């Protein structure tokens, strides 16, 4: 995960969240996709955890992506659920 606009503290936060999300992402990715690239599952997760806050959803997006979530599924989820 490399982002030149993030501070070391932000990078550390995303890495910590990614570590927490790895089991969740592994479970989602291991199941049969009922929506394209699991966007439905990721959308539910983003919507529930962010409570509609786009900034929080953006942080969660980065953490889920770093945890191995399908990038296209996350983009679709963010677009449709947040």
Brief overview, please?
By secondary structure, this protein is mainly alpha-helical. It has helices at 8-30, 39-50, 54-66, 71-81.
Query: What share of residues is helical?
Result: over 70%
* Structural classification: mainly alpha
Major sheet size, sense and barrel closure: none
Number of helices: 4
The multimeric state of the shown protein is: single chain
The number of domains: 1
How would the global form be characterised?
A: globular
Look at the structure and give the mean pLDDT. 93
Secondary-structure element order, as H and E? HHHH
Low-confidence segments, ≥5 residues, pLDDT <50?
Answer: none
Approximately how much beta-strand content do the residues carry?
A: under 5%
Radius of gyration: 12 Å
The total count of strands amounts to 0
Tell me the span between the first and last alpha carbons.
23 Å
Characterization of the model:
By secondary structure, the chain is mainly alpha-helical. The protein has one domain. It has four helices and no strands. The protein is globular, with a radius of gyration of 12 Å. The two termini are 23 Å apart. The model has no long low-confidence stretch (mean pLDDT 93).
Write the layout of secondary structure elements.
Blueprint: H1 8-30, H2 39-50, H3 54-66, H4 71-81
Keywords:
82 residues; mainly alpha
């Amino acid at each position: 995960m490399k982002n030149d606009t993030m501070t070391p503290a932000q990078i550390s936060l995303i890495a910590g969240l990614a570590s927490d999300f790895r089991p969740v992402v592994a479970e989602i990715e291991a199941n049969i996709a009922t929506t394209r690239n699991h966007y439905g599952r990721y959308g539910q997760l983003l919507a529930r955890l962010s409570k509609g806050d786009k900034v929080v959803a953006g942080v969660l997006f980065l953490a889920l992506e770093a945890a191995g979530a399908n990038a296209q599924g996350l983009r679709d989820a963010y677009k449709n659920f947040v």
